[in-house]
Amino acid sequence: MTIFIIQLLNSFFYAAVLFLIAAGLSLIYGVMRIVNLAHGSLYALGAYVSAWVVGGTVGHAASGTLGLAGLLLLLPVGAVAVAVVGAVIEPTLLRPLYRRPEEYHLLITFGLLMILEDAMKFLFGGTPLTAGSIMDHMGSIPIGRLLYPTYNLFVIAIGLIAALGLWWIIYRTKFGVILRATSQDRRMAAALGLNVSRVYVQAFAIGCFMAGLGGAVVVPAQAAVLGMGIEALILAFVVVVIGGLGSLEGALVGALIVGLVRTAGIQFFPEIELAVLYLIAMAVLLIRPTGLFGRA
Amino acid sequence: MSLLETVHLKKYFGDTHAVDDVNLTIEEGEFISLVGPNGAGKTSFCNVVSAYYSADSGKIIFQGEDVSNASVTQRVKAGIARSFQLVNLFDDLTAFDNVALAIFSREGKTRNIAALARRDSEVTREADAVLNQFGLAGKRNELARGLAQGERKLLDVALAYALRPKLVFLDEPTSGVSTRDKGQIMDTIASVVRGEGITAVVVEHDMDVVFKYSDRIVVMHQGAILAQGTPAEIRKNEQVAMILIGSSGPDAFSRKD
Amino acid sequence: MSLAVAKKGAITSIGPSAWRPAVVAIAILLVLAALPSLVDPYQTVLLTYGLIMAIAALGFNLLLGYTGLLSFGHSAYFGAGAYTVAFIVRDLGAQSMELCIVGGLLGALLISALFGFVCVRHTRIFFGILTLALSQVLWSLAFKFFWVTGGTDGIRVASAKLTLLGGFVNFAGPGSFQRFVFAYYYYVLGLFALATVIMWVIVHSPFGKALQAIRDNETRASFVGISVRRYRWIAFVISGAFTGLAGVLWVPLNGLTTPDILYWPFSGEIVFMTVLGGFRTFTGPIVGAVMFNYLKTYAVASTEYWQLLLGVVLVVLVLALPSGIVGTAARLAARFTRGTS
Ligand SMILES: Nc1ncnc2c1ncn2[C@@H]1O[C@H](COP(=O)(O)OP(=O)(O)OP(=O)(O)O)[C@@H](O)[C@H]1O
Ligand SMILES: [Mg+2]
Q1: Which of C132, C134, C314 sits opposite A111 (nearest CB)?
Q2: pLDDT-based confidence at C9, cuts 50/70/90?
Q3: Which of A223, B43, C31, C274 is a Cys-bridge partner for C285, taking CB atoms 3.0 to 4.6 Å apart?
Q4: Is the Cβ–Cβ distance between A80 and A195 less than 8 Å?
Q5: DSSP letters for B113-163
Q6: pLDDT the model gives residue B217
Q7: Helix (H) or strand (E) holding B227
Q8: Share above pLDDT 90 across residues of chain A, in percent, rounded to a whole number
Q9: Nearest to A180 by CA among A167, A190, A191, A171
Q10: Mean pLDDT on C180-195
Q11: pTM (global) more than 0.80
């Protein structure tokens, strides 16, 4: 029973991180109709920056004066950095392409991926970076007769808060109305006097922020390594294919499904764990081509 | 046996009754005009019969066979073709290739992977003949996207015609074309269609054109058939006049735009 | 405005009646045939790689340029071909390259038929994502089932043990590698020429026209009686077979097959080279593949951060030269001839 609970928590932890990545991917697609192949690399960038800041001299100073709180305050730096990168990328690289067929969107974001991957290699070197000090500071709590890292629970909470926050922004704020209007009909939104360019930058930056946040929260538990983004992107794709590209609910449900299957997979069928995920995604697509929550 | 028969055909979009219990019988060789105000359901009717949309309920009988569940390609193979209100062409192919493709497809030759399309002199000859019939011979090697609106309209019809269908739906073949060209296009279409004995259903707003060319006129309103009859009968029908006047100004029957 | 940026009608304007392309093609072939005796073996190997990738890109472009489907998962079919060869050589002890080709093609056909069946139910972005995701199934299997696939170590395929042309050419004895490189170049060149001719016929056949019609206007294609999904599927399988053949030919030259060629960034490279050459032209993918091969080799040799370099090239390409090398050259040539006449 204890094992079962721990496995369940593990899958929630995993789902929380995946949700952050996939929700960003989905948001960007929903608003701008762009599938960002560099999204995984942005997640990795968030991880690296956070690990670098928390594990570096700034982190030491912060933990010296403020302890754990100081480190936790530093953690989102990666997400903010990625959001800034996003705010630069959208107007310079993506904006000239909106009138072009989507092949070019995929291509340019693929080029971006190549650039980002090597930029990270250049900036952070080939050695893995972690922010493990946060994990150590937080300790663990007993579950049954076993100990479970408190930090994992913290990440699950972050995932939940992010889901609620995003839902609130999209469905309960004026900005959300603008976002949805733009996503439904770009030209109509422009005709109504909305500043579509600004909405796009904001949406893209928020999407990037989510990816960066995913990287930031994962890095105390797992080291940032080269290539982590490329792998993450594929899993995020599985999530959005199952849940429906462009749907927030879909990202949440998809992330939970993938999280659960993956945890079960690691336990029971490690060799075909990824294959099983893809088979599920395939089955969903054959039955519901737009995913569980997708619109046509 | 009638060529086409629709039985209680229905297509709703939410509260909009686009096609509402339509029972229409079409005999072989007829030239029928389908008229009605904007949003009457003319296009929707064509869409449902040509399988672009599936019907909500009702039956479509073509040559005595129930084709209600047949796919677009199956209905095309059975002999139902159509053109589109908004021109629908292969824009990056030449006018010739557009027509040739329809012929290749009709002949089952698109399955041919190991021969050069241009080496098929039979198809080439026929495609050129069709272009000629529609007055497009001069545009043979131009890309469809580069043609003028009237030419695109004609090419759209030519594509449907090249399939040598038994029944063809032409959805506003002259819309967006100047009045001068309109008559020419309709003349071309009427002569080709009648010459081949093809049964045609033409959606048209210009009542002059409608009265001039039709054997029978079918008037739709709010998804249903309001009236049908010969041009003479329809001309006398005051209810029809009211409907059409309501949609297109006081002189619906004598409009000369 | 679907792809209006590319040279309009470039594909259709190459008519089979024109004998000039044939003359040019034969001239190029002759130059290519003379090359190994003029340049050092390293250059020969490099060009062999380029020609192999050209076959892959040619196959890929049947989908992108002619059918309008962007696959981001062609690594799967390349890898299927490559791994099948590796299995045949390792487990069946086969030596005949022709046997490898037949086997590898069957492997690629099987995988592409299976994946294609699922993928052609979707178009546009979903097609791209789906092809990508499915290719990663193979990758993860190759990665995880290491007792079959050798995991990250891959499987070695010793070129010295192979025979070409049904045993007629073998590489036993001294100077094995040099002789292999020399002979294999011509072997690949022959298959490349054959593949190019076959592909040229396919895209100029009625079937090829039907694919272009589907690309331009899927709805209308079905209204002239074309079963869109089935045609897409057939195109997918042909495309996979060509790319699979490239994978087959690649293994002996590389001497090793690893999961890297199944990983999706490799699919990205195939897309990259095709766009580099110009995907709305027949020769674009060929030129693009050869150029990309040189570009990548150069980049890898000159900097540790070659990916960054290539990424910048891709970004600039997309922004400034979307119709690729051949597409742009054709447009310039057209402007020039119009200007002078
Ligand atoms: N795909 C659709 N989704 C929702 N509503 C539709 C759709 N197609 C048609 N309609 C509605 O069905 C009704 C009939 O439309 P239809 O296009 O058939 O009219 P029409 O007689 O062809 O008009 P027009 O003369 O303007 O072409 C209209 O109210 C239209 O808004
Ligand atoms: Mg209409």
Answers
A1: C314
A2: very low
A3: C274
A4: no
A5: -SS-GGG-HHHHHHHHHHHHHTT-GGGTTSBGGGS-HHHHHHHHHHHHHHT
A6: 92
A7: strand B224-229
A8: 50
A9: A171
A10: 93
A11: yes
- Token digits of residue A296: 């046509």
The pLDDT tens digits of the residues spanning B25-59 come to 999 989 999 998 888 899 999 999 999 999 999 99
Which chain A residues are Cβ-neighbours of C64 within 8 angstroms?
A: 103
* Distance (Å) from CA B32 to ligand 2 centroid: 16
CB contact under 8 Å between C223 and B82, yes or no, is yes
For the CA of B36, the nearest atom of ligand 1: 21
Whether C212 shows a pLDDT value over 90: the answer reads: yes
C94/C326 Cα distance (integer angstroms): 40
Half-sphere exposure of C282 (CA within 13 A, CB side): 22
State the nearest Cα–Cα gap between A31 and chain C, in angstroms.
15
The whole domain housing C183 covers 2-340
CA distance C78 to C267: 9
Angle between helices C228-254 and C206-216 (to 10 degrees): 110
Q: Identify which of A87, A281, A102, A53 has the alpha carbon closest to the alpha carbon of residue A197.
A: A87
**Tokens 């008519």 map to which residue?**
C15
Q: How far is CA C160 from the centre of its chain?
A: 25
Length of chain B: 257
Q: Taking a C-beta distance cutoff of 8 angstroms, is the pair B96, C244 a contact? A: no
B223 torsion bin: left (phi>0), alpha (psi -120 to 50), beta (else)? left
- DSSP structural state of residue B25: E
End-to-end, the C-alpha distance of chain B in Å comes to 40
pLDDT tens sequence across B73-125:
999 999 999 999 898 999 999 999 999 999 999 999 999 888 888 888 999 99
Q: What stretch of H or E contains A199?
A: helix A196-218
B vs C, Cβ pairs < 8 A, gives 119
Q: What angle do CA B192, B195, B198 make, to 5 degrees?
A: 80
Residue with tokens 């100073």: A61
The per-residue pLDDT for C170 is 77
3-state DSSP call for residue C95?
coil
- Sort strands B31-35 and B216-221 into parallel, antiparallel or unpaired: parallel
Q: Which CATH number fits domain B4-92+143-245: 3.40.50.300, 1.10.3720.10, 3.40.50.720, 3.30.428.10?
A: 3.40.50.300
pLDDT at C266: 94
Best to test chain C binding among B113, B120, B123, B147 (most C CBs inside 10 Å): B113
CATH code of the domain containing C329:
1.10.3470
CA distances from B46 to B16, B70, B84, B158, B209 (A): 16, 15, 9, 17, 20
| B92:C2 CB<8 A | yes
Query: What contacts C237, CB < 8 A, 6 or more positions away?
Result: C109, C112, C113, C116
**Does chain A touch chain B (at least 3 C-beta pairs within 8 Å)?**
no
With beta carbons less than 8 A apart as the criterion, state whether C23 and C294 touch.
Answer: no
Residues in contact with ligand 1 by the CB-under-6-Å rule are B 13, 16, 18, 36, 38-44, 85
Burial grade of B52 (CB within 10 A; 0-12, 13-18, 19 or more): middle
Strands (E) in chain A, as ranges, are 140-143, 146-149
Half-sphere exposure of A187 (CA within 13 A, CB side): 1
- Among candidates C11, C209, C216 on the partner chain, residue whose Cβ is nearest the Cβ of B117: C209
Partners of residue B202 on adjacent β-strands = B33, B170
Question: What is the C-alpha radius of gyration for chain A, rounded to an integer number of angstroms?
Answer: 19
ipTM field: 0.91
Main-chain dihedrals φ then ψ at residue B16, nearest 5 degrees: -80, 120
Please give the tally of structural domains in chain C. Answer: 1
What is the domain partition of chain B in residue ranges? 4-92+143-245
| Separation of alpha carbons C215 and C124, rounded Å | 11
Burial of C85 (0-12, 13-18, 19+ CB in 10 A): buried
